[in-house]
Amino acid sequence: MRACLKPTGLSCNSVNGFNGTLPSEMGRLTLLRGLWMHQNSFTGSIPTEFGNLQNMRDFRLYRNALVGPIPEEFYQR
Length: 77
Description:
The protein is mostly beta strands. The protein has no helices and 6 strands.
């Protein structure tokens, strides 16, 4: 996972082959400006805690197996 860390973002694209659900604890990383976790095998829904990522500017989760709506918390900024 250390190779995924960038100064202002977290980059874990398909090269890593991650799977499972997205951990709600990632909502505590409030200084993140970028989250690139596309082209993996993540399942489940986007945790509502991701709405705490107030500095997020670039959010990429495409090409996963996520279901459900984008949490309302994303729009309450």
